[in-house]
Specification:
The protein has a single domain, classed as Amino acid/polyamine transporter I. Helix 1 crosses helix 8 and helix 4 crosses helix 16. The protein has 415 residues and is an all-alpha fold. The radius of gyration is 20 Å and the shape is globular. The two termini are 24 Å apart.
Length: 415
Amino acid sequence: MAQELELPRRLEAGTSAIPQALGAMLGVGLFVGLAPAFAAAGPWSLFGLPVAALAATCCAVSTAYQSAAYRGPGAAYTCTRSRVGLVPARIGATTHIAGQVAAMAAIAGVIGDLLVPSSSGGAAAVAVLLAVLAATAGLRIRGRAAWLWLLLTFAVVAVVVAVCFGIAPVPAQPSSPPGPDSAVGITGAAGVLFFAFLGFERLTAPAEQRDRFDWRVVRRGVTVSLAVTTALLGLLSAGLLYQLGPARLALSPVPVIDVLGAAAASDLRPVVAVGVAVALLPVLLAALEIARSTGLALVRDGDLPAALGRRARSGTPYPLDLLVGAAAAAVAQFVDPIPAMAFAACSVLVHYAFANAGARLLLAEERAWPMRAACLGMGLAVVLAMSMPVPALLATLAVVIVGPVTTGAFSRRWS
């Protein structure tokens, strides 16, 4: 068993782990996710941030050890199937793919709203198509290119925060409806904010052997990435809360854009809008890569058609990527980014509840602290998922029922 859990050595010494993880995490959750979080708990949302960060840390630990024990795509699915059972594994896999599809739809929807407000649906579809074409061509944003893209994200956050604190806020109108102001919504806010941390699997559980890193590199990369994401969310929350107040922030579709108008800095809106849209493109590609990993595991086990795993010259499964991209583009046409983000967070939390359960059994006799982290992550995932908005819960429940039934009907295996 000790050999089974031996963690992989880094194969790409010239690639940095930190931009690989951050490039998949700093996206819609950072630029848009604060609005639904404050809608859930008002100023109490700030207490939901460490809860979300803790849940993400536990899930990152679990997926890292699962990836070490079960090499190849969909390590969490394989571990859950081996340790918990086939049906729980299918539930976890289908909710994971559905969550990533919804995440892509949310990202593409924001890009469309920012670049082409009059035809945001078409722009969203084009953004997804570009991501699929880039993946099929084997485009990989690594090294200096990844750092440059991250610098763009940091620059956007720096500009918005400087505007927020550099200009005195306009006093709130007495007629403005009060926002939520209850600690009851902290777990709901944490569930939404958990979306901002999605993407660590790109580092902890890569599908391809060439993307694996040494355990020390993974641990450092995850630690730094989670810390940076938490810091940026906290800093941006403070700035937006100071300038907009909790009620206006809760109602804003894109807070980092709306705050510029509130702070009499409307001249910066086009520049910031383009900056946010461009910064989201690598995140869109990363979500596709993560969905692909679980999808390939289902193809490998016969739960999805083998034709979906057909490889392009670049080595990517282009039929699977096209299917995921088409689903994301369709969702983006009918669902606004914030509801899509809520569903994505809820679905992925259900996935991690099962993934952590598998990791807990995997590590039961091996390591004390990672096993306890898996237990904590499982509990947090359940609590946060149950705290999400009712529409997101109902949509996730539909996936929980339809997903395993569909995959089981295709493979005709139930055990």
